[in-house]
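Below is a complete specimen:
___
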Amino acid sequence: MLDAGSLVGAACERTGLDDFGGTDWREGLDRLIDSLNGEASLTEGGEQILGLRLGMLLTNRLRIVEVLARHPEIGGEEIGGPVFIVGLPRTGTTALSNLLAADPRIRSLRLWESSDSVPPPESATELSDPRITSARLGLDAMYEAFPKMRTLHFQSATGPTECQDLLGMEFRTEHFDGMARVPSYADWVIDCDMTGAYAYHRQVLQLLQWHCPPRLWHLKTPVHMLALDALCAAYPGALFLWTHRDPAAVLGSVCSLISYTRSWVSDRDDAAELGRAQLGLWSEAIRRAMAFRDRVGEERFADVRFDDLQTDPVGAVAAAYERLGLEFGEGRAGVEEWAGGHRPRSLGVHAFDLGEFGLDAGTVRREFSPYLDRFAPSF
């Protein structure tokens, strides 16, 4: 079984550090470990995989906190934006993230620095940092062990990644539910106080840009929709790109991806339960995001159609920039280059059977009816 105390002790021993920067992170870790041990039906290999993952998060946190303590000036770093990509999973958020990352004026969270943030990256070595090779080897090993992942969610070491590690170091993110069956943890985290998690999230961005600008950030993960008020408490100037696609066309793909990643750590088959849980999770996320948008105003949002990302990705980005008041001119060349070299694979469609997860299109559309009433013309 996984043991929180042992994981914490090992991280401290590995780094020679013991200051995690407060105590709020510990509740999430304890709840997650209890759920993993009691509900996830982990295999021996699954315990090893998740133990390594949690250990990495603890180790990275210790090292980040140590640098922040030694260099309080990092706390004065100004964060531009950020521009957050939100929307249901499998609606083009990854493709849009890569398009924005190709704009040289925008700072993105890259995979290699997300999981191993210390020492803070330097502009002079950001393309040759040895952590890039380490991250690439890790990806290669994952794709060799789980080859289907190349098609479902392909990443590169130097490409943009979801900011799940930044929330993961606070142990307050629904991403863990995508790794293993943890229903009690998932129920807790959906309504927990995320204010501290986003404050820490901001500290990590400050550290990463300290010696490695630019300072206008773009970030993405669909789970942000669950806690946009807490996000904006940390980032008062946040702007949002919201991707849109028929929920009935994506929920099967979402469930299939999660079912596959959970199979790495457990032999449990919970397809029907997974379908119900994901339907509830994402309809609630959409409901919260719509209510937030109504409160803060339309001017902070730009809508991006999935079909436009497939047929005219550069035009979709240009229109989104204009809507948010961002200049596109100097960034166009990089965006055009990425779009020209990655279609249609990176913007492709992954279709899966809703019925495998106890769902059908009618049920999904009824659950999302307020969203469909408002945004269906955008599909």
Summary: The beta strands are 80-86, 107-108, 216-220, 239-244, 301-305.
